[in-house]
Amino acid sequence: MVIEGVLVQPPDERDSYTNLRLEVEQLHLQGQALFQPAHGLLLARVPSTGGPSGGWRYGDRLRLEGQLQTPPVDESFSYRDYLARQEIYSYMPRAEALVLRREQGSPLWAALYAFKDLALRTVYRLYPDPEASLLAGILLGVENGIPQAVQDAFTATGTSHIIAISGFNIAIIAGLISGSLGRMIGPRRAFLPTVGVIALYTLLVGGSASVVRAAIMGCLGLLAREVGRRQNALNSLGLAAGLMCLANPFTPWDAGFQLSFAATLGLILYADPITQFVQRILIRRTSPARAQRITAALADTFLLTLAAQLFTLPVIVYHFQRLSLSALIVNPLVLPAQPAIMILGGLSLLAGMLWPAAGQLLALSAWPLVVYTIRVIETLARLPGGNLLLGELALPLVIVIYAVLLLAATGGPRLQAARAALKPAGVLTALLLAAALAWRAAWAAPDGRLHITLLNVGEASARAGDALLIRTPGGRSLLVNGGPSLTRLSDALGRRLPAAPGGPPLDWLVVTAPGDEHLMAASRLLERFPAANVLWAGGTHGTRAARDLQAALVQQGTPQTLARPGHTLDLGSGARLQVLSVGARGGVFLLEWGRFRLVLSSGIDFDQLEALRSGAEIGPVSALLLADGGYAPLNPPAWIANLRPQVVLISVSTASREALPSPETLTALQGYNVLRTDQRGWIELITDGERLWVEAEKPGPQP
Predict the structure, then answer these.
(1) pTM for this entry
(2) C-alpha dist (Å) from residue 323 to 265, 314, 373, 394
(3) Neighbours of 202 (CB within 10 A)
(4) Does residue 428 sit in the same domain as residue 500?
(5) Closest listed residue to residue 364, CA positions, set 380, 352, 374
(6) What's the pLDDT tens digit per position in 19-44?
């Protein structure tokens, strides 16, 4: 089909593809000339361009060519039902797109999406990954940048609600806006502006079921205060659910709506009874005043979460067939930090958009709390037995469970509401933040050794490419290539590079192979990790990724140096990176420090193999990075035999369609110490110039 329509939402950019949502205007079969009018929404998937903005914008009028399909259904998930709840019934999984005209959408939506794009870029400028991606989810509802491993850790520990925007975000916004405007223009006049800001924020973050429910209940609470009436939480929840179902009859079947509704209902019905029950037990063992203080400290961190989890548990087991036991441990540890993360993170974002220096200063206070949240959740997610996989839960049993819970909540006397808040001392908080920043600086400080990390950036890609992070003894940072996945690359660098406000975190970006699989993520990465200099080997415009990276470098004004044989980068402390040969596919590089020698052969070709006499010109080395995931023609046995590496590194994907490394290569590597990213995850070589240490993400035999 050939379809024309207008892009009604910003493109949803992933690592290797982009989802486009179009309002269709006309279409015709391929080969025909006349268009027929058509209406409705279409989801199309196009290849990602790798450019900084993806090439698509809200309001673009596009022409798509591709096969039109009904969204698929499999045993575990119905993509068709998921899209149907969003009124999308057609799907084009492999489409080619052409921009016909720009700015064909609503000026209001265009301004709102432009603000969101600016806010998202500001978050990634202020924070390293994965902290930046988590904050993008918490503040802006953009979760597609969160690394899959981090998402899995949140799911395994039952803490995904931290990422989802919900009532807490709305309460913070309502409190800040109504409080500040109320002091300036009066509470009554502040009512409509506050409701307007809540509505704009709801639209800004995407209007998911949990956000809409929280926004409606927040506005009802403001209205109740405005007219001098007490808000009835059950009535507000019922009205919010009714309005949402009136707007979209598919809402009750949405898992996000079910979880949000159940969690809120659990808080309304069970938060006070559970709190009062715990307080009565404590009174038997201590004084009433101390019991009240302990209960107040437990309320927000444990008891309220317990009430919400009690009501969401049947929905979670019904939809996902899993039960997180570690949630009872994780939530009390991480929830106290979330209010500060929301407030400080939001303030740093707003300040960073207006005055970057002020935003960076506020980011330094919020960043340790985000790191703490991620590290605690990742650590406890690895505990054995913390996540139980269960079978299917029958729908009638779910109904019976909720009937029992509702009967237990409404059968006894209603207890008075108690508000509890845990307010850590300001001095203690400041000391903890200072300690976290000091440890971060100490961890990132150079240790006088050379670190080479082969990053696992292509685990789910058909062709993994490669990306290496080199940290010199003096503290310089070099990124070699970048691989295909922006999410995984940004996450890996954010965990390893020091936060450096006002200065580029990468001293050099070194392009040893300009192929798409090596550079797809690099151009978009520069917005988050700008490079001070670029050393480029091979063609500059031969691939799409190379062209996109060149455009990004020109836009940022980054100095470039074209690699020539014999060119050497002085990395300080005696370390150096030398260009051995250059061809159309890239180049061969040699990293040396003391007795340590590493050959990077990602860009090698047959002419370079001949010029280097299959490695005889180089001699024995400490380590060798094979080209193209161990593709046999580019890694002949003579090359390996002449170099005699102590360690062989292979960047290869578990999803490789080419059965890499080649069997011939594996035969030639028998007797060598081989480390592969598909088996070991990231791999780090550490040397003092005399000795060599190896660390890896996953356990295995040490070389």
Answers:
(1) 0.73
(2) 20, 10, 21, 15
(3) 23
(4) no
(5) 352
(6) 999 999 999 887 777 888 999 999 99
- As given in the structure block, the two tokens for residue 314 are 């049947």
For residue 236, report the phi and psi dihedrals to the nearest 5 degrees. Answer: -65, -40
Burial track 65-104 (b if 16+ CB lie within 10 A, e otherwise)? ebebeebeeeeeeeeeebbebeebebbbeebebeeeeeeb
The residue among 257, 313, 303 whose CA lies nearest residue 278 is 303
- The answer to whether 223 and 175 have CB atoms below 8 angstroms apart is no
Last residue of a domain, one of 58, 86, 105: 105
CATH of the domain at 689: 3.60.15.10
Q: Look up the domain containing 684 and give its range.
A: 447-695
Count of C-beta atoms within a 10 Å radius of residue 107 = 9
Quick: pLDDT tens for 356-400.
888 888 888 889 899 999 999 888 888 776 666 666 667 788 788
How far apart are alpha carbons 574 and 622 in whole angstroms? 17
Position 176 in a domain? no
What type of residue sits at position 141? G
**What span, in angstroms and rounded, lies between the C-alpha atoms of 596 and 575?**
10
Query: Which of the given ranges, 130-139, 183-192, 301-310, has the highest pLDDT on average?
Result: 130-139
- Distance from CA of residue 229 to its chain's centroid? 42
Q: Which residues of 362-395 are buried (b: 16+ CB within 10 A; e: fewer)?
A: bbbbbbbbbbbbbebbbebbeeeebbeeeeebee
* Residue 29 shares a structural domain with residue 101: yes
Q: Helix (H, G, I), strand (E, B), or coil: what is residue 645?
A: coil
Name the DSSP class of 70. P
The residue type of 600 is: L
**In-domain check, residue 383:** no
Q: Which of 68, 83, 105 is the last residue of a domain?
A: 105
Whole-angstrom Cα distance, residue 497 to residue 476? 10
How many other C-beta atoms lie within 10 A of the C-beta of residue 592?
19
- Per DSSP, the residues of 500-512 read -TTS-SEEEEEES
Whether residue 95 contacts residue 46, with contact meaning beta carbons closer than 8 Å, is answered with yes
**Of 102-111, 304-313, 572-581, minimum mean pLDDT range:** 304-313
Do 425 and 286 share a structural domain?
yes
Please report whether residue 337 resides in a domain.
Answer: no
Share of the chain above pLDDT 70, in %: 86
Q: Which residue has the tokens 């990742």?
A: 378
Query: Distance between CA atoms of 112 and 9, rounded to whole angstroms?
Result: 11
pLDDT beyond 50 at 418: no
Owner of token pair 């049947």: 314
Has residue 515 been placed in a domain? yes
- What secondary structure letter does DSSP report for 373? H
- Those residues with Cβ within 8 angstroms of residue 602's Cβ, 6 or more apart along the chain or in another chain: 466, 480, 481, 512, 513, 518, 586, 625, 627, 628
Rg (the chain; Cα; Å): 28
**58 near 109, Cβ under 8 Å?**
yes
* Mean pLDDT (the chain, rounded): 82
Same domain (yes/no): 555, 631: yes
Length of the chain: 703
Q: Within a 13 Å sphere around the CA of 171, how many CA atoms are in the beta-carbon half?
A: 5
Would you state the pLDDT for residue 194? 82
Q: Which residues of 519-545 are buried (b: 16+ CB within 10 A; e: fewer)?
A: bbbbbbbbbbbbbebbbbbbebeebbb
CA–CA distance, 173 with 346 (Å, rounded to integer): 10
Centre a 10 Å sphere on the Cβ of residue 497 and count the other Cβ atoms it contains: 18
